[in-house]
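does this look right to u?? adenosine-5'-triphosphate version
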Amino acid sequence: MSAVATNPAAPHAELLRIEGISKRFVKPVDLAGRIANLLGAKNRESVVHAVDSVDLTVAEGEVVGLVGESGCGKSTLGRVIAGIHEASEGRVFWRGQDIAEMDGPARQVFTLGAQMIFQDPMSSLNPRIRAGEIVGEAPRVHGLMNGAAQDEYVAGLFRQVGLDPTYRRRFPHQFSGGQRARIGIARALAVQPKLLVCDESVAALDVSIQAQVLNLFMDLREALGLAYVFISHDLGVVRHIADRIFIMYLGRVIESGRSADIFRDPQHPYTRALLDNVPRLDARKRSFSTVKGEIPSPLNPPTGCHFHPRCGLAGPRCSRETPKKIVEGDGRMVACHLADGGVG
Amino acid sequence: MSSPVLVVDNLATHFFTRDGVVKSVDGISFNVMPGEVLGLVGESGSGKSVTGFSIMGLIDPPGKIVSGSIRLNGEELVGRDDASMRKVRGKSLAMIFQDPMMTLNPVLRIDTQMMEAVQAHEAVSDKAARARSAAALAMVGIPAPEERLSAYPHQFSGGMRQRVAIAIALLHRPALIIADEPTTALDVTIQSQILSEVQRLCAESGTALVWITHDLAVVAGLADRVAVMYAGRIAEQGRVDDVLDRPLHPYTHGLIGSVPGAHLEGTRLHQIRGSTPSLGQLPPGCAFEPRCDRAGPACSTMPVISQASDGRAYRCFNPVPQQGVTA
Ligand SMILES: Nc1ncnc2c1ncn2[C@@H]1O[C@H](COP(=O)(O)OP(=O)(O)OP(=O)(O)O)[C@@H](O)[C@H]1O
Ligand SMILES: Nc1ncnc2c1ncn2[C@@H]1O[C@H](COP(=O)(O)OP(=O)(O)OP(=O)(O)O)[C@@H](O)[C@H]1O
Ligand code: SF4
Ligand SMILES: [Mg+2]
Ligand SMILES: [Mg+2]
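got this back:
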C-alpha cells in the first residue's frame, strides 16, 4: 500500500488555467555601466520579457509539455505555474478559482497542490540533511501527519519512487544521480500534490536511468491521477510523455496543440525547424538542415514575429506586426502570419 | 583499400588513486579510416573522454596508459615525450571539447590565439597567419571574420565560441579530430548548424573524426561506424545501421530501447535495471552481467571479443539473436 492517498480525478476537469501571463525581470545597470554613467553615458536598466502573454490550461491527470531553446522562458513560466514567481500580468486559476482572490486556506491548497521538481537534484537537496528528513519535512511542517506516523509515511514514499526505505538515513551524496532524482520526486509527492512542474528533471541523467525515471513519472500519473507540466529542451522526451505541447520562442508560445498533431503536422516555421533539426535514431548519415542565425537576445528581441530574422518564409508583415494567436480545431494554436492571411 | 589513420590496439588506461586502481579504459581496440566518422557512445563514466585524452597524449598522473598501442598514420604515439606529442597535437591530431574554453584563453584576443596556433607548426609571417585565421573563421560560418578576429572569447555566444574552437582544430587540416561532446551544451538549432559545418568540413578536407557523445541519435545522424562503451570496454562496434538496427550486445539493445521518442508515445520505455557501475568494484566477468537479462553462468568470466559476419566486434556470451545475420 502506498502512503499517499489516490484520488482518481474526473477526466478532463480543468485543474489549472493561466490567462495572459507575462513575467518581466528588470536587469539593473551593472557596475561598469554605472561608472560610465558618471562620465555621462546613458545606460539604463533593461527589462527582460521572460514570458509574454501566455495562455495555457492543464486538465486533471494531463501531461503538458513545454519546449523551446535556452532562454525562451520555460523555467520562468513553470515557476509562475507552480506559484513560485508572481506574474507581472495575467491571472492564474486553480480549479476555476483566481489565486489572487483566494483566502489563506484556499491559497494553501494551491501552494501544496502544485509542486516543482528542479533540474539539478544535487543542488536542490541540502547535503547535510538525511534523505528521510528531506522528504518528511514539508508534510510535517504543514501538519499533514503527526510525528509518530511520519516514519511510516516517508518509508511509503520511498517505496513509491522505487527507493529502498532503509536508505532514509543516508545523506544526498551517498546516492547516485538517478536515486537523487527519485528523492526530489518523493519530496514533491510528500505534500500530496495534484500537479508536478518538472523542470528538466531528467536532463542530467544517463539514458538508461532517464528511462527509469520517465517510467516512474508515468506510473505515478496512473496511480495518483497526477497532472504534469513537463519542461524539457529534449523533444524526444516531451514527445514520449506529453499529451499536449506548448512550443516557446523568446517568451511567447508560438504553437500549441495535441502532441501527436504537432509531431505529425507542425504548422509554425519554428516548430518545423525544430523538428527537422532534432537528431533521431532513425535518421542516418543525414544532412543537417539548418535554421540560420543565432537565437536573439531576450533583452532585445526582434520586432513583430520574434522568429522573423531566422525564418525562411518571412515577409514584410513579419517584422512589423506581432502574429495573432490563431486557434484552430482540436485546441491547436499557431501564432504565425502564414496562418492568418499571409506574410505580405 | 587505404590504411587506417588511427589504430588503437588493446589500449588500457588506469588511474592509480588512493582508493584503488580505476580501470577507466581496459582493453579497447578500434580503427578509423581516412575521412571516416566513428561515433564513440556510452553513458557517463564509461571511459569515452579518457579514451580521447589517451589518444591526445593528455593523461596525467595518477593516470597512466598501462598497455596497448595507439598508431596515427602508422606512427606509435604511446610512450612519446611531451615535446614530441606537442608536435603532433594541433598539427595532425586535434581535439574539440564540450567546453570551448578548454581550447580558448579568456584573456587573449581571438587573433592572438589563432595566429599563435598557426605559427606553432608553420613558419609564416604575421600577415599570412592572420589571413589564415580569418579564412578559418569564415569557413566555420562566422560572419565578418576580419572584425571578429579582434574580439575576446566572452564577446561570443556559446555556439560561436564552439565554432572558433573548431576553426582552430581545423587550421592545419589534421588527419584526425577527436570531438568530445562538442554540441552537448548547445541548443538544437545551434547544434544542427555545428554538425552540418563539421560534416561539410571533414568531407572537404578528408579529416577523420572520432565523435564522442552520450547521444545515440547524434551518432545515427553523423557517424559511419559506432563503438558502444560500457565500463571501460567496447561492448559492441560496427557500422551504424548494423548496431542500431540489429544490436548484438544486450547493453546496446537496452540502451536503444531507453531512448524516448523512438517508440510509441505513452508506452513504457524499456529500462535497464540497476544503475551504472562503479569502476572501482567491477565484477570479474562481463561488467554488464548484474544488469543483464540474458546473463548466464558463463558471464561471470570475461567475454573475449567475437566477430560477427557483418564485421561487427562484440564482447558477449549470449548476444541478442539476429534475423538473417549469423553472429
Ligand atoms: N530571476 C531572474 N532575473 C533576471 N532575469 C531572469 C531571471 N530568471 C530568468 N531571467 C531571464 O528570463 C529569460 C527566460 O529565462 P528562463 O530561465 O525562463 O529560460 P528557459 O527557457 O528556462 O531557459 P533554459 O533552457 O536555459 O533553462 C532569460 O533571458 C533569463 O535570462
Ligand atoms: N583523473 C582521474 N582520476 C581518477 N579517476 C578518473 C580520472 N579521470 C577519469 N577518471 C575515471 O575514469 C572513468 C571514465 O571517465 P571518463 O571521463 O572517460 O567518462 P566519460 O565516458 O567521458 O563520461 P561522461 O559522459 O560523464 O563525460 C570515470 O569513472 C572517472 O571517474
Ligand atoms: S510569422 Fe513570419 S517570420 Fe514568423 S514564423 Fe510565421 S512566416 Fe516566419
Ligand atoms: Mg530553464
Ligand atoms: Mg566525458
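The first helix of chain A runs from residue 31 to 38. idk if thats expected tbh
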